[in-house]
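Known limitations

Files may contain more than one protein. Parsers should not assume a single record per file. Below, a two-record file is shown to illustrate correct handling: read the sequence, read the token line, then continue until end of file.
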Amino acid sequence: MAHSQKSIRDHTRRRNQPNIDNSLIAKQLEDLVKPCVYNQLAYYRSLEMRSRILSLPLMLAVVLSLLWRQVPSVRELNRMLARENLLWAKAVKVSQQALSQRLLSFPASLFEKVLKDLLVELNDRWQQRKTESSVSSKRARKYFERLWIVDASTLEALFRKLKSLETVPLGQLGGRICAVVDLETRFPVETWFKSEPYANESNFVPKLLELIPAKTLLIVDRGFWNFRFFEKLILGKSDFITRLKGKAKYESLRTLSKSSQHHDQLIRLGTGYQGNPIINLRLVEVKHGSTWYRYLTSVLDPEVSPTTL
């Protein structure tokens, strides 16, 4: 069911003025992003985009300012561009129509390439100032080369402030996004987008399997619950942790350890229905307060992934 505009809190917050500029933040953004922007000029020209006032460097500065300073409208953004420098872009007068059309037609792949260049720099900086990892992360890194988290989310309904969106049904959701994030650095590894807002997480599984190398520990939500996905991860020499589904059918094989606060056992999951594989996994149940939490993992050795640290 489509959401109404009234049910989405972000759509009800009025913002009439952009946030004020901050020279220190602006300088840091420029130092980080500007080199990545100019690295993409060759790709920009390969798309046969004409060299014009609203060029790649200017558009990246405009969009980054739009997000960072929470500019409420394209009209206000156009006024700002006419009267002040936006990051590395010098003030310039253009029509609001030209800016609107450029925002609608500018290739998303350019922003993606700039982001991926930027992530290389950010990862290098993180390695140089590497802080102390958690005890659980340290232990996991003894056995795995990568600790990744994957989740998918439905994007909220579109704002219908542009003429190009006037015919869009009220409350139409913006699509579905899936992201793989590094557990230690918190930086995105990869992202995918589908325009269908109700696309199941399983639609992202083929791309996910192509991305994941061996010796990766993947933390996934129950939305990715798929026996064949689990089997292919294991065959690819990777492992996963997820939550157990409430109605999942399994056979208990052996108890590894048990107390009043936890229950750790080996199980056989699945019934073979419709040719789905039957997999030997590990079920770890942990009590927090008065609630029991149940986690499923392909890491069968308690030495590799203990119930407590």
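...continuing to the second record:
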Amino acid sequence: MTELDYYEVLEVTRDCSGVELKKSYRKLAMKYHPDRNPGDKEAEDKFKVVNEAYQVLSDEEKRSIYDRYGKAGLEGQGAGRGGFGGTNMDDIMDVFNSMFGGSSGFGGFGQSRRDPNQKYPLDFEIEIELEFHEAVFGCKKEVDMTYKTSCEPCDGTGAKDAKVESCEYCGGQGQVLMRQGPMQFAQTCPQCQGQGKTIKEACESCHGKGYHVEEDTVTITVPAGVDSGNRLRAQGYGNEGRNNTRGDLIITFAVQEDENFVRNGTDIYIEVPVFFTQSILGETISIPTLDGELDLNLNKGTTDKEQYVFPNEGVVDVHSGEKGRLIAQIKLILPKKTNDEQKELLEKLQESYGVESHPHKSTFDSAFDRVKSWFKN
């Protein structure tokens, strides 16, 4: 049986960073989670393998052993058993929080920040767009938002005079236990939406919702180097619950593309159009960078798609503070039309190179002779 490569399982390269590893793990774990694929044995198996791979690669020591000796070198290290083992529980909780709206999703794996009597989560998430340069250099953004506040007349219950009864479906627990294969997990009660209580008569102030909606504007500082999918937590700007407690606002960024620069992590790519004569002669040309310009010294005979790499001219890493690379890729431009004078000059140039100007002849001479021999009697 062919052994699965953990890097392929997590869809990352062998030199990927911890951030890239976690991001890919989180995406795949959510994709194959049994609760999202009820009755799908293949998804369940993939979910186990994804966790097994991340358990190894997220641990520096285990990853080093795996890189040198493969899975066999990890025997006795606690890897490859299909469970969670030494997997970073914060990463697992990130997956569950995304799927279950702040609840752990698995019984016994952590406590929800949510008050069981609270009708809505205190934390909530919004997405804001950033222009390319705003993400690269950082900026301050004013974000208009709405948040919920607990209704005072009903104490956030949604019931007239705060009179509530225990939910019969879940027995007042707010959750019901579900089993998917060998795994057992808690799911929000569909009858009471996790409240554990039901109401007979709705509050007139909030019409049974248990909250009112307020408007606010928050100014956030966007750090340099953020990228699409990155998240920022603004503490104390979430929904306001009972007893005036307030959660956090979680902001997810969506970065717009630039007309010339293409970003890949902390690296920046730029396509540089070069006329064929510039390529032949090896000119020096100026190209734009993120914060100015620099000289690109073309090698004589530069080819199409050839790349020139400039260290520390890319985007700053939002975690380490180190800058990536600027990678200039050549796009060779050939003339679309030539007049009589240009044609004459090009012919003279070609003749001046002699045999070198007809590379196809030396390449195909033997092929022509071989083809002719096939048809001789």
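Parsers that stop after the first record will miss the second one. For reference, the second record is described as follows. Residues 41-57 form the longest helix (17 residues).
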